[in-house]
Amino acid sequence: MNDVRSDLYPPPQALRDAAHISGMAAYEKLVAEAEAGPSAYWARLAREFLSWKTPFTRSLDDSNAPFFKWFEDGTLNVSYNCLDRQVERGLGDKVAIVFEADDGRVTRVTYRELLARTCRVANALNARGVKKGDRVVIYMSMSVEGVVAMQACARIGATHSVVFGGFSAHSLRDRIEGAGAVMVMTADEQVRGGKHLPLKAVVDEAIALGGCESVKNVIVYRRTGSKVAWEPTRDHWLHDEMGAQSERCEPEWVGAEHPLFLLYTSGSTGKPKGVQHSTGGFLLHAALTTLWTFDLKPDDVFWCTADIGWVTGHTYIAYGPLALGATEVVFEGVPTYPDAGRFWKMIQDHKVSVFYTAPTAIRALIKAAEADPAVHPDRYDLSSLRILGSVGEPINPAAWEWYHRHIGGGRCPVVDTFWQTETGGHMITPLPGATPLVPGSCTLPFPGIAAAIVDESGNDVPDGHGGLLVIKKPWPSMIRTIWGEPDRYRSSYYPPELKGYYLAGDGAIRDAKTGYFTITGRVDDVLNVSGHRMGTMEIESALVSCTALVAEAAVVGRPDETTGEAVCAFVVLKGARPTGDEAKRIANELRNWVAKEIGPIAKPKDIRFGDNLPKTRSGKIVRRLLRSIARGEAITQDISTLENPAILDQLSERN
Ligand code: WT7
């Protein structure tokens, strides 16, 4: 009992008493049930949580591992489960979405209205020939219309692929082409931080780049009314399309394995991967984790600040909360506009009780609060809060403590939720009424998730030793495949040496006394900048595609106080190595190039120019040395195999 670390933050008694999962014994009971019979455990929950048109008779099908299937012979519809079901339960007049626009304007949409709007859009898609199994790219800002677009696709069995509104025309084009989308849904513009940013114009540019011949129609939500270019045979206003349609639309009942959505995400090599998710398994975990991890109650006001362009916005905005009939806040803007007190003011105004955000936002708002007392959270009434969540990257203990104290008033559990685009929902997370919290640890696996830490041959490593995070057994919301690239799916997530375990791509370590997990970061070439996932290779490709200037480039990450990691690029130009103002000018030009190729989120923070890159005699770039240089560390590694050791000094110089 000397180790009190795990007892630093036990669940508050009142919260624990009323929780869905109350106390560690309740947690352990579920874990035991899942261990005794995973297939039966998930089947029980799938029957309890989802409404099936045709009940399934089989839970897990692992006959073609790692292409697992769940509840395959059951049929259901996600939009029915999220909307009709709530109206049928008598929640028609309950507010589903509280939407706050960038300028502070608030609109409320009830479940009945959300259903009607979804049906109108679904009918409009049908009228344009979109059918079950077709792919629809959604390139929209945070809006009720964005959520409705996703729900409408689900209603007719179309597979959506949402592309984050910050991605460039090139990235959008690649994703439209990859998915073979028949339709793009977008808005004229998006409004963020008082600025209007184009969306429709980017869609036009993407299509003009070529490769998007599959796109027959573009549907445009009029957000700002600014003038946009128009291709009359292809482009249609959303309000015109909806106006002609009925408020009723029979759901398309699809098999549980039907692809609900694709979501492109970065890997360590090659182009982004189209992560394919299922209907039944995904929705089950979305509902279940929203309920248990956030201990959601009928009168809660839930706010997940993610964008629908990322998986967090899929699971915890578009689907999970709606599947439970919850009231949720959807926010169009940014945390720092009109000032850095925006989040706290919104929590106060909407009486938010469950708040879910990213460590990057917290760290930025800590800085802002320290610089300007007017936006300090202590100035706001945050007493409505019950539970706080963190997602997307490790939360450092100092940020955790601040979040807990200044936002949660010391009374709200902070659930540090570890998961990935590929996992569909939470994998390792505290449950607020059960798990004692340790800042900086995502604590224990969600009941039914067989998380473990292994070495490179798939053998368990002892507690206290770092290793590779794996999930030993399949789970319902797991990635089904990479769209159109089944071999890449297998080699990325089920490498032969790992005994059939799912490889997360993160390192982790488990505490010997508590069994708690701590994520130590990616073990591959994937960076996490402000909670946004990016491949170093993607940024390198973007840099070298600037053929007028760049001969060679290598990208690594380095720790950053605010954004978690920062992108650091080492570049060899075709011309002479620039210095002084010239170096600054070219670095800026390259930053803008990357923004154009991928999106502003991928802009390198730091660009260093060299006559060459550190290479072995066989010509391989030695990235670990670049990582040390990027961090400003002294080089202690063995450099005897290096062809050109003198280059290290040159690259260490800052421009
Ligand atoms: C990667 C997945 C999770 C949805 C949003 C990001 C990192 C995520 C945590 C956490 C430490 C975390 C991992 C993971 N990550 N959550 N709580 N603690 N690291 O999804 O874009 O697919 O990124 O984000 O490195 O592999 P994603």
Radius of gyration: 24 Å
Which oligomerization state do the chains in this entry correspond to? single chain
Within the largest sheet, what's the order of strands? 12-11-8-6-7-14-15-23
Q: In whole angstroms, how far apart are the ends? A: 53 Å
Coarse morphology? globular
Percentage of β-strand residues: 15-25%
| Derived structural class | alpha/beta
Overall pLDDT score: 96
Portion in helices: 25-40%
Describe this structure in words.
The structure is a single chain. With 655 residues, the protein is of the alpha/beta class. The chain is built from 19 helices and 30 strands. β24 (502-510) and β25 form a beta hairpin. The N and C termini lie far apart (53 Å). The model is unreliable at 1-6 (pLDDT under 50). Bound molecules: 5'-O-[(S)-butoxy(hydroxy)phosphoryl]adenosine (WT7). 5'-O-[(S)-butoxy(hydroxy)phosphoryl]adenosine binds next to α11, β20, β24 and β25.
List keywords for this structure.
655 residues; alpha/beta; eight-stranded mixed sheet; seven-stranded mixed sheet; 30 strands; disordered N terminus; binds 5'-O-[(S)-butoxy(hydroxy)phosphoryl]adenosine
